[in-house]
Amino acid sequence: MSYKSDIEIAREANKKPIQEIGDKLGIPTEHLLPYGHDKAKVSQEYINSVQGNENGKLVLVTAINPTPAGEGKTTTTVGLGDGLNRIGKKAMICIREASLGPNFGMKGGAAGGGYAQVVPMEEMNLHFTGDFHAITSAHSLLSAMLDNHIYWGNEQEIDVRRVQWRRVVDMNDRALRQITASLGGVSNGFPREAGFDITVASEVMAILCLASNLKDLEKRLGDMIVAYRRDRSPVFCRDIKAEGAMTVLLKDAMQPNLVQTLENNPAFVHGGPFANIAHGCNSVIATTTALKISDYVVTEAGFGADLGAEKFMNIKCRKAGLAPSAVVLVATVRAMKMNGGVAKADLGQENVDAVTAGCPNLGRHIENIKSFGVPVVVAINHFVTDTDAEVQAVKDYVAGHGTEAVVSQHWEFGSKGSENLANKVVEIVEGGTANFAPIYPDDMSLFDKVETIAKRIYRADEVLADKKIRDQLKLWEEQGYGNLPVCMAKTQYSFSTDPSLRGAPTGHSVPVREVRLSAGAGFVVVVCGEIMTMPGLPRTPAAETIHLNDGGQIEGLF
């Protein structure tokens, strides 16, 4: 049986004018700023007007550690949102925007798949409403003003060897990771080493996604550390006087983007911080607004629960005063088999033993999520090759961990296929058993926070950090940053820092390579192992097959 591609399904969508989608939420037309017929930004004035409303219930969708077999976290998020609307709940979906780099590389888009998608798929995966361009421009403005400040006399006495602020571009371009800037003579400034990250790794992106309003945004931008002086004192963005103009560039980007699912249900798609080195969730302003105008909000966090859910709980929820009522943990039979040692080429063959052997990865995520005081249900994202015996093996394993696994067929059947999952989520939420709390307090020392995550979430024996790193953390505590949460930057493929170590490893160590202070975003980044903030393209990038067909339609996006 042949199935339509995601883009073919998206193209056949019976989209409604975005004003009708706004009507479902009670958003007046004058507060929708349309970008074409099928997407709009929601005005800050309207967002301000609903702050007195009672909050709806927040449901987080997370997953096991990603494998090449695919898990379908966004697809499940969309499918669950549609399923909740199908059973009569007023539900909204909140997901991240897609980055151009991975789209043209190998990861593909970020709008769901099959019959559980957010549309317009092509625009969402390309330029959308220009938010990422605005972030790139604001970041670049600060880069230019910083080098300009040094050129015109360096009043702040910046040590050019200690400029922290790198440049960004929203493309996977390994050639830009490390560069030399300002070559070509006196008129071009003072030569120094520099480099580029991908836009989603910018602290400006993290700030946009954690700021509660424009005033908060401007303050956080001003708080960013851009360089150090010879005496090691920090130079802030506000010292360069860039935060006001940066806020002007980000004014529209701060407003959430309203779009719709294939079933015409409302979705906010807004922001997209890198899930390795930032917190990997959509914007606080989108999530908090959605909670004010709907009864259920389904959102997702990047990568597996050891990264995404941990940061969602310890950073986003802590900073925004949010508390999830339930967590949906996405797993696939295929991924369990890969964790159980089966090669990707052999995933189509039934192998119950391999499924069972791969389940400890799932079991550990269940335990970790429960440690935050939130009930969890496992969603088995169904593939047509899954056999009844394999599915039952997952269900039996999950039952042994005191929770339930529900098969969801949203990819194939849309909300009809996710109805059972939606009913189970409602049952859990209305049961009211959630008692959410982050796993460490604000006043714990920074290094103890790192150890808490490494030992409780990753099940590591120890954290390896040399004196220089420990001294740096102590210095930041003395400077008043000790109450910040920590943002762990590590591989998404394993609980450990070794991407090849699947399953549920124990007895490993977490080596800390460096620590970075994101003073504006409000967290300390702890880099463990090798983490790329500028990805490269694969040998055969997806861009090679993306083109316009004779009808002027885009082909090759997936």
Structural notes for this entry:
The protein is an alpha/beta fold and 558 residues long. The protein folds into three domains: 303 residues, P-loop containing nucleotide triphosphate hydrolases (Rossmann fold); 119 residues, Domain 2, N(10)-formyltetrahydrofolate synthetase (2-Layer Sandwich); 83 residues, Formyltetrahydrofolate synthetase, domain 3. Helices cover 36% and strands 19% of the residues. Strands 1, 2, 3, 4, 5, 6, 14, 15, 16, 17, 18 and 19 form a twelve-stranded mixed beta sheet that branches. The longest helix has 21 residues. The model has no long low-confidence stretch (mean pLDDT 94). It comes from Roseovarius albus. Belongs to the formate--tetrahydrofolate ligase family. It catalyses: (6S)-5,6,7,8-tetrahydrofolate + formate + ATP = (6R)-10-formyltetrahydrofolate + ADP + phosphate. Pathway: One-carbon metabolism; tetrahydrofolate interconversion.
